[in-house]
Amino acid sequence: MLANQIGYYSLIIGLFFSFFLFVVSIKDFNNLNKKINQNVFILSFLQLMFVVISFLSLILSFINSDFSNETVFNNSHTTKPLFYKVSGTWGNHEGSLLLWLLVLTLFIFLFLIKSRAQPKKYRILTVLFQQIIITGFFLFVLMTSNPFNYLFPIPQEGLGLNPILQDPALAIHPPILYLGYVGSSIIFSASLAAVTQNYISKEWSQHIKKWVLISWIFLSIGIMLGSIWAYYELGWGGFWFWDPVENVSLMPWLTLTALLHCILVLERRTLLTSWVVILSITTFTLSMCGTFLVRSGILNSVHTFANDPARGIFILVFLFVLIFLSLGIFFIFHKENNKDLNSFFWLSKETSILVNNWFMMYFLSVVLIGTVYPIFLDVLSTEKISVGPPFYHKLIAPFLAPFLLFMAFGPKLKWIKSKIENKNSIIVLFVISIVLTFGIIKNLSVNVLFYTVLITAAFFLFFTTLKELFVKKSNNISQGIAHFGFSLFILSILFNSILSSEIITNIKIGEKYNYNKSEIFFEKIEKKKESNYSSIIGYFKITDKNGKVTQLKPEMRAYNQPIIVTSEADIKTTLLEDKFLVMNLVKGDEYFNIRYQVKPFMLWIWISVLLISLGGSMSLFKKKYEK
Amino acid sequence: MKNKLNSIIIFIFLSFCFVVFYKGLNNSNIYTPKINDEKNIPIFKAKDFNSNINIESEKIFEENTYYIVNIWASWCVPCRKEHPLLMELSKNQSVKLIGLNYRDNLNNAKNFIIELGNPYSQILIDNDGTLGVEFGAYGVPETFLIDKNKKIIKKFIGQINQEIVDEIKSIIK
């Protein structure tokens, strides 16, 4: 109860600090003193503290199951384990917005501390732009999604957290993803500030690179966690469904990746400045756009949280204010450095990065169109369509092969002007890739030409980066690891999709099912009762064609609050393949419907994403980038 | 000049996007479950709220009249809000209200009825929430309209309002 009040008033106080910060910063802007007024630091710190207090009091309300708080009432329950009570704090709309605010205020404070070497006016402008965003979110939270709404009379029991959200990967997925999303707000504010001060330069890029890398790493890992959750919890046996909400997190990742590469160019030569600014703006707008699409309920998706047009309109207006503001600033202040424009030599690192950008833009437009087009069509013609995986696969896969080849060549090139060296080793690696691919493909019944091209390209990148890492001892390990991780990622996905097999059948207890020299034996079921759910566990023995026996125990859970039945797949992960079994009750029958899948290289998909992120992290901690 | 043209085009395009999104918001995606294939009421046994005796469902729905099954609980805030409307409905002669007391403390539930009045001709206890599942409920409150053929013809998720009451009245007339 008290925590509720404290949380609410802390939020209002936090909003007031935004106003103070505006006043103090604007005053300080024209002050000739070279240092930023100490008050800006203090105010920013206090604002952060009050948001922290507010966030902690919401967590406290969740821990104490204080159902006088509407958010707690709607999303928690006394029988829930403590871990999920805490993670329930950000598992809902109101709490997750509070988390946004927390990260926003945290990052601007860190920015202030970490940017002491930068020009004063640039820093103050960054604070101002960031405060516009922060004020917007404060108003959004207080006006449409207050996490501290009071309920009277106090309900005795809460409505519970959706059981499919009760999962460890999902408990940490939102905070990590938000660190990535919101980290891009700093890049947004900083690049706008830099444009107005005409400060898009080598020094600026070295300073902003850290922020780009941080957001990029968190975003990568955040997306992966969401994907792991979908794989383990949703029980569909896939890890990426091209669901609108997944796409929405992928889009900022694409622009951020392009931005990261542009920054590398900018570190060396004052080139691609328009790219850098536009990508900084788009990354954050896409993050915001994601919030809009997910939170407003305009999209149909497994993630749809609440349908509340009032919230949607607020974010929508706010989003477009930010877009118009930022584009306005860009058009008014940005001056392209003309003398450098024509100095691209066709075979150079700059060109290859430019090519990479265009690939990223292509992938982005595919995903963007696939996600937004149904909305446009619905509004303009009232026709309802949904865009599924085939659309994305057909449009993305053919472009993946040249993209992978460019990834292999690009890093080998030198800045400014280059020529192809070691022609022989390239040819050798390429021939090895083709032969290896063909050897694998010819035994499989798939589209030979299509997969040969794609897998050859992936293998080529794989071997090239491997050679760079181990044979040549390249001085740019972070890039090597990231690109190697990407080749591994594509290879795992391709082989996973080609080699996966699936059996769907109805089976009784004690029955055996035979196929392809393999056998599924349904031994027995067992009933279990936990505090927040009761469950049926099936015991299965699976003998594969090599005679290897695997025990799998899929589970069906009936949660009590709210009442939802979920299927928990049992997955046995080994280095080379995952065995995945999920069961469902066939109504009014003693039969169970089972789905058994063998999915090769699943583990490597996660490992490769971690490798990609590791590459980014190493670059973050490296003092000097390349020679 | 070229720059200006670009910015105008971008401005117009973005404004167009804004309008589309704005309209899209109002084309709300809220799902109102429509029961097209009318479902029979489930067959079950339940304890009576007052007498604590087990009753079979056929006994409960034996009269040739419309029934409304309302799932409620004393801890449920929307239930409290919709209660006056249920009281209003209960005055109607051509319908009988059956209450399903969902996962509740019996004493709290009794106090709730004493405080706000009893619109139900019969109240059943659903302690573990299984009865609600039988009806296909997602939570509380939920209201089902059952016709003379003992089929569920309407289902209302969440707190009912005056519009829904009028709709029910027009059906049972």
Summarize the structure.
Chain A has 627 residues and is α+β, with helices and mostly antiparallel strands. Chain A has helices at 2-29, 38-63, 70-75, 82-87, 93-114, 120-144, 168-196, 202-233, 244-268, 273-296, 309-333, 338-341, 349-381, 389-409, 423-441, 448-470, 477-499, 602-621; strands spanning 501-507, 512-515, 518-529, 533-543, 549-552, 555-560, 563-568, 570-573, 577-585, 592-600. Among the domains of chain A are: 1-166, no CATH class; 501-602, Tick-borne Encephalitis virus Glycoprotein, domain 1 (Sandwich).
Report on this model:
The complex is a heterodimer of chains A (627) and B (173). Chain A is of the alpha+beta class and 627 residues long. Among the domains of chain A are: 1-166, no CATH class; 501-602, Tick-borne Encephalitis virus Glycoprotein, domain 1. Chain A has helices spanning 2-29, 38-63, 70-75, 82-87, 93-114, 120-144, 168-196, 202-233, 244-268, 273-296, 309-333, 338-341, 349-381, 389-409, 423-441, 448-470, 477-499, 602-621; strands at 501-507, 512-515, 518-529, 533-543, 549-552, 555-560, 563-568, 570-573, 577-585, 592-600. In chain A, a hairpin with a 3-residue loop joins strand 8 and strand 9. In chain A, helix 15 crosses helix 16 (448-470) and helix 16 runs antiparallel to helix 17. The radius of gyration of chain A is 26 Å and the shape is flat. By secondary structure, chain B is an alpha+beta fold. Chain B has two domains: 1-30; 39-172, Glutaredoxin, CATH 3.40.30. Chain B has six helices and eight strands. An eight-stranded mixed beta sheet of chain B has the order 1-8-7-4-5-6-2-3. The chains are: A alpha+beta (627), B alpha+beta (173).
